[in-house]
Amino acid sequence: MTSKTRKQRKTIPTFTWLMRRLDSLRRKHPEEFQTAMDGGYTTEILKGLKVRLRSSPDEAGRYNNHIQWFVLYRTKKNGDVIRYASIGGFKEGDEFYTLYRPSFSATEYSMRMHKYLPFDLPEGSCSAAGWHYKTPYKTCVLQNADGSTHSTCRWYGGRRGKPGYAENEHNSVEFIIRDRDGAFVGHNKFHTLENFYDYYFSNPIDLQHGFLPGTCNSKIEWYDSMANSNGLWDANKMRTIAARVHSEAIALTKKYPHLRIALYPMEQKRFLNDGHYPEFGTATRDNRFDTEEQTAVLLGRDSQTRPIIYWLPRIVLYWLQPAGNRRGTAVRYIRATIPPVGCPSLLRDNRNSSCFAKVHSLPLDPGQLEIVASDKVHMRDSLPHWENVGVWPRQAYHCRELICLSIGNWGKADLGYSRRPGLKHGEADADAVVHDWNQDQNVVVVHNYSADEPDDDPKYEQPYAARPSGVFSCIEEKELLDSLPLV
């Protein structure tokens, strides 16, 4: 180790600071940000250093597109990229904390990488020799976020290829910094760390930091996203419905300050750079309030009969609460999707097909069929093949985002999503309880995850139609019940 590496200035990032850097990356370099969100490396958060974003799965094994860890990687001389440390965040009361987890083994110790961690090993790392009480140790200098010394403890190198660990009087030392003032607090084995492990499966640290990628920066931006230049829907009617839902949400946030609003814009799914259009099943996007990816909706076709599809605008009213008999903190929400009011594709086709009929979304033009076939997309030789087997061109009302229970049927019926060729409206089992867009378009599609244990009740998997003025009525009832004194 040279004197130069010893004197490198500490630049210890807290989780709060890293979240601000990530949000700045979202605004200034959206392509790089998307690469990071998709699991790739980014060198823009910590300049020149490879960083990946990670989340911990919930109890169902889902990741839900939230950020919980920044993972730092070191590039070795031979070009191999290895994980060096992970930086996670959690909240205790009103305070944010950062937990640093080293991953380096004795042979991977690097002063250049180590300047990002709140401890120093002045003599480098070392290998283990048996159990920890027989292991030779080095002095570990614990540091505050500004690089000043807090205290010292012992550092034991891990077995070959394994990370080391710190101990102080036979008690393990966790590397924790309080974000507000950068103070090292990891020597205190108290409820702070217990809180982190309680959060491990459902730590909503991204929401606690107000990090919601993909949302609009203002309500004006949200309304503007519904503008119509192609005549496929009635923008004024859409905005009217959206404004009524938004107004109700705002009133509730003023009455109950722990409630928050997230607005997701209407956005067109673009063609690929080579002019081809991907299979419809790939036209999805994640957001923080989905148990699965959001599916885009086919609203029409262009002059070449290629499908025109959009992600519909959404409004989410969400809050955080203890997760009942589960570990950690639960994210509860009600999400409303604004339908494409006035869109002809929202009406049943001239075949009067059921919304559960077997459908396809590929281009209908014969020239486009050749392009699609050469691109090895699954498709038969011609459109008549689809007609013969009862598979119809997709309309908006066939799209899963708009198939929902009619008003009054939530909790009383099950939609199901099996599709069958040649189904006419009224022939599917669920046609009797599904919302009919031919009859009423002055509703929104609601996904309700407001209960303490949504996965224990199948009704919480069922979207339903609701009037704009009644979307969040169950929240008002819940808040009233919660405010009543216990008898």
Features:
five-stranded antiparallel sheet; 487 residues; single chain; disordered N terminus; 22 strands; 11 helices; 2 domains; 20% helix
Q: Which residues form runs of ≥5 with pLDDT under 50? A: 1-6, 58-63, 129-134, 364-381
Write out the strand line-up for the largest beta sheet, numbering strands in chain order: 1-2-3-4-10
Q: Please tell me the overall pLDDT.
A: 81
The tally of domains stands at: 2
How would a textbook summarize the main sheet?
5 strands, antiparallel
> What is the overall number of helices?
11
Strand percentage, roughly?
15-25%
How much helicity do the residues have?
Answer: 10-25%
Distance between the termini: 68 Å
Briefly note the structural class of the backbone. alpha+beta
Q: Name the overall outline.
A: elongated
C-alpha-based Rg, rounded? 27 Å
Q: How many β strands by DSSP?
A: 22
What can you see in these coordinates?
The chain is elongated. The strands form six sheets. Strands 1-2-3-4-10 form a five-stranded antiparallel sheet. Helix 2 packs across helix 3. It has eleven helices and 22 strands. 20% of the residues lie in helices and 23% in strands.
